[in-house]
UniProtKB/TrEMBL annotation:
Domain of life: Bacteria
Name of the protein: IrrE N-terminal-like domain-containing protein
Residue ranges constituting the IrrE N-terminal-like domain according to the UniProt record: 25-149
Length: 161
């Protein structure tokens, strides 16, 4: 299932998108750990129950993005029961992982955190063109907003003078 499908099923239409609520609705248990070596660890047990452990020492923005990325792995069926996957999120939120499944989960996370209908409304109807302003609205780092706008199929409007 793509991010748009997850949003359609589990999103309450509010911004910023509540990824913790979506994780709960998708049956994913989320907990925090002080001893995790990576930003997050996604597991699916033998009974097909997903769980996500977040490193509590990472910034909330990193944890939020890692949660969205974990939801991507789950929705895109990247893990089978009994398997686990580390989710590494760098401070610059680079989207250049050599793994196809990681890139798919990263793109999923962008689309989940920054839903296209709201982005379109903000940019085209409200003429919000400042990346920092948009990043604040969606509660994402400016780097992620920049990546999302590069990926966006709609042309950016010209600033009004």
């Amino acid at each position: 299932m793509f991010a748009e499908g997850v949003l359609k099923l589990h999103w309450d239409q509010s911004v910023p998108v509540d990824v913790a609520h979506i994780a709960q609705r998708m049956g994913m248990a989320v907990r925090h750990s002080s001893s995790l070596a990576t930003c997050a660890q996604l597991q699916i047990n033998a009974q097909n129950q997903p769980s996500l452990t977040l490193c509590q020492h990472h910034a909330p923005a990193l944890q939020r993005y890692a949660t969205a990325q974990a939801l991507g792995h789950l929705a895109l069926h990247h893990l089978r029961p009994g398997l686990e996957r580390s989710i590494v999120v760098t401070e610059d939120f680079a989207l250049d992982d050599p793994s196809r499944t990681e890139r798919e989960a990263q793109q999923f996370a962008l689309r989940l955190l920054i839903p296209e209908p709201v982005l379109r409304y903000c940019v085209q109807d409200m003429a919000m063109l400042d990346i920092l302003e948009l990043a604040h609205l969606f509660d994402v780092p400016a780097a992620l907003m920049g990546w999302r706008l590069m990926d966006w199929p709609m042309p950016m409007p010209k600033p009004r003078h």
